[in-house]
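FW: tagging you since you asked about this chain on Friday. Here's the raw sequence from the shared folder, copied in full. Didn't touch anything.
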Amino acid sequence: MKTRSALAFAVSSLVLAHASMAAAQEAPQATPVAASDEDQGDIVVTGTRTAGRSRFDSASPIDVLSNATLQRQGTTELGAALSAVVPSIDFPRSSAVDGTDSIRPATLRGLSPDQTLVLINGVRAHTSALLNTNGSVGRGSAAVDLNTIPSVALERIEVLRDGAAAQYGSDAIAGVVNLRLREARSGGGATVTYGQYITDVVTARGQRNEHDGETVTVSGWQGMALGPKGFLTLSAEYLKRNPTSRGDFDPRKTPIRVRSRFGDPEVKQYSVYANAGYGLGDSGWELYGFAGYQHRDSTSAATPRIAGGTGSNANASADALASLYPDGFTPLINVKSEDVTLTEGLRGEISGWKVDLNLSYGRNKLTLYTRNSGNATYGANSARDFYDGSLVYDQIVSGLDISKELPLGDGTINIAGGAEVRRESFQIGAGEPASYDRNPSLRPPAPPTLGSGAQGFPGFQPSNRVNVHRSNVSGYLDIEAKPVEALTLGAAVRGESYSDFGETVTGKLSARYEFAPWIALRGTASTGFRAPSLQQQYFTSTASVLTNGTIVETGLFPSVSAVGTALGGKPLRPEKATNLSAGIVLRSGGFDLSVDAYRIKVRDQIALSENLSGTVVAALLQPYGVTAGRFFLNGIRSTTKGIDVVAHYRKATESIGTFDFTVAGNFNDIKVTQAPGPATITAVVNGAPTSAVLPIFSRQRIISFEQGTPRTKVVGTVDWSLGNLGVTGRGSYYGDVTQPGSTGFAEEDIHTGRHTIFDLEVRYQVIRNVNLAVGANNLFDTYPDYVRVLSSRNQQLNSTGLVGFPYYSPFGFNGRYLYARLGVTW
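HL: got it, structure written out here
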């Protein structure tokens, strides 16, 4: 509350100080977080289908981020760059959660990653094939991987912080992120960035100095003319990043040392993008298209296996592989991602109606390997590296959009409508037998104390194979009227028909009234939905274990499978949402302020159940050769309330340069108002009907929903330039985030604490076309609170030293990052 009061006081002071400056100051810049945009950067295409609408004229809050804003920081990851400057976006750096280490999801306003729609040039982007099934932020979601699009390929990003399912379709519950690619007929540039972490790591059991995470990024772009008005813009990026290690000291074996690799994965990737437009003579019609490809090779670490341990530290599987790894081993999870995007379209006018017809294809394939590991049931004969299988998601989207602006009394009305057809598919491919099986030639069979398959990440079995698809057809009508200059009214309705769950209709109403050129009120009311993803409906992952001499399976099953149905699973329904927002916009010369309050109610939210196990469950599932399982289900209701504040002031002087100040904050509160209750499982055990009451949705999941992202985040930025010199300073305050413990007691929860991170960059134009920058992210080497050894209840929180810091931390846990960047333009 103190932080909120301080921000409110600061904003109020700015308003009073600048309310009388309308005639004296310069026009504000295009974005609330950058000083480098041109005036035309105000114009947006997200959230409105009326041409020429600016972000200030929009009925919904929109952040506009230039390429310069993304570039003026140490990270070259798009997701991390967005999170650094947009308070409502969170991009945690998870670790020790399998594939999510390599394919990290972002959240908007604290909602699930798959409740934000991502567009590329206004066209729906495809999601990753990965389903986040472990305990990370965004558990249970399959979201768009923002890091598949290199920042160098982008001209700007528009972040619509408002529900927009009626305008754009499924997923736009929290909002929309529209990535707009460069459009250049000439010119170009190249950039080389090098950085590394130089940090003092203080964990519960000691401290050390680390120099790691060395990262090299080489990127460039080139614009070329196609005909008299057309363009082709090519962009490419290469990134190589070494891993980081921030685990605690491992006390399980002498000598005590850091044995885990808890931190960022090792990454090698290259990306290429092309964006083109070509005018068809004097007809006014244009062919356009864009294409992108990325190959990423990412390797993260699983939990270390210690050989020779005794008591609670004993690990039978590590002992069985001691001839290969005498001191134990740390399995490595290798994810190779291939991502493809292809879009082509035709736009022009027919009888005054603007027409846009496009076709898009997107595909993400993940090939999975476990390395530096072993299958304990094979002992000394085990392989060390395993092929675990593959995940593939793709979609084809065809869309038609038409619009026309017509007179309406003294004003205008813009009528837009269209249709979209989408086909999606999802596949799981099995791994090699040794990645999942128990040694079939071992007689007698391997003891049940030995884990099956590759240690760290067992492969997909033949029974896990999936090849499914679905289609949907949608149509929308979007009307935006301006009956008088001061008033804007909007209404949109959209109907969708899915081949798997049926039909849904959403709507949106919006209004904006300008009392004077310097003040306006705006508000929206909308309904939204998110279709259950194919990954949530059909993902299957099982592990084989030996029970009473019989190999059985346990794992995650589709809710409509035989196992899922036996446990109470039902066909998944779409999530539904109601979104209300109201805000005020103030502009006075070089100063602008927006304050927007929102309430988002979500019902039928989809979540992953707890793993149901025990004697009764094993008896119930015996006909299926399964002893335990979990599945996706509807049944969560939540209410999200919050306020977004963006205050910006720009002042240009002749003698001391140009100053750009921004304070932006997101104050967010999420409450789970309803969750599935415990399930009563009944089966015949030893000849008698027996029941067990088991939790379906635990306290851990509720805490993750409510407190897994910062409830308060404030970013203050100062940008100054004079001649060839420029400086950007940024301070980011993060409220406390809770990583739930596994015992069900609040005393075992892990907290990140409240922290402020400071970034600094200094730039210098060496010669006309060459610029140099040096900087530091997290200048003062701030960490989240470390994970304690014992809780206040004297329970172990950190017995192995695997985790040094909470991986829910919204600003990561790597410490100070120093970097240098050399850029050349032509």
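FW: The first strand starts at residue 62 and ends at 66.
HL: agreed, and Residues 187 and 533 are 41 Å apart (CA to CA).
FW: great, closing this out.
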